[in-house]
Amino acid sequence: MLLCIACGASFSETKNTFLEGLRTPVSTIWKILNARTEGMSLNATCKVFGIAKNSLLSWEEKFSNLHHTLMIYSLSHTFVQSVVEGDEFYTKVDKNTSAEESSRWTIVLMDRASRFIWELSCGKKDKVLFKKAIKRLAELIEQTEDLTLVTDGERRYGKILFEICHELLRTGKVGRPRKTLKKGVTVRVKNKGSQAHKKGRKKPKYQRTCPLHPETSNNISDKETHANHVEANNSAMRRKYSPYRIKTNTYAKSKPGFQRI
Hints:
The protein is an alpha+beta fold. The chain has a domain at 80-192 and 203-261: Nucleotidyltransferase, domain 5 (2-Layer Sandwich), CATH 3.30.420. The protein has 7 helices and 10 strands. The protein has helices spanning 26-37, 42-49, 53-75, 127-141, 156-164, 228-240, 255-260; strands spanning 2-3, 10-11, 79-90, 105-111, 117-123, 144-152, 166-169, 178-181, 185-190, 206-208. A 6-stranded mixed sheet has the order 5-4-3-6-9-10, sandwiched between helices. The model has no long low-confidence stretch (mean pLDDT 84).
């Protein structure tokens, strides 16, 4: 408890914060949420720690909403250079289905330097899900002078980014201006899988998916074109969160609960 020198009123140190109104000690809440992140289910956590299910759900919603505050705070800064890795992985929800029919694909956009997760959205692997993630990336481009997006094999990142964030290259020549990515934006794709047994024209191992602005410098080498950091994060997600363990019968029951976890 704190005491105001001006008016003499007493108040809690969590006043006007997202922790306001919580009677349980923050240290206890942290232990409970840590057990959840290590893969313990909702019912098991409530039984072990002797808490109500609604209390645990409210705590998870409070902490998950904190990500929006951090996102606004991060977008208020100007970045000189940023490298973002994009990848996606899926799990089974409610019942066993194939990967193409699963509605719980998760798209991850992670900053390589700080490991800050810009986007972590789930849904069906279609254009709607990719567009939702890329819109967040378009907001980041406005605050970044030099941004590079690297992905593993998935070309829809670059194509949808080109639809949302492009500009017309006006050279003064006769004809329709050519569309390019905004100045300072680069998209690189690493084509995964072996093509030694395939006939015909082979795809290059590293390539661009969109036309770049002439004044954009390609400052990332082929060796740096990878999504290793976000893939390591995906492996940790599968190890910790029970709904992502596709080889078990622990499936998420609904999309809101899956997104909250």
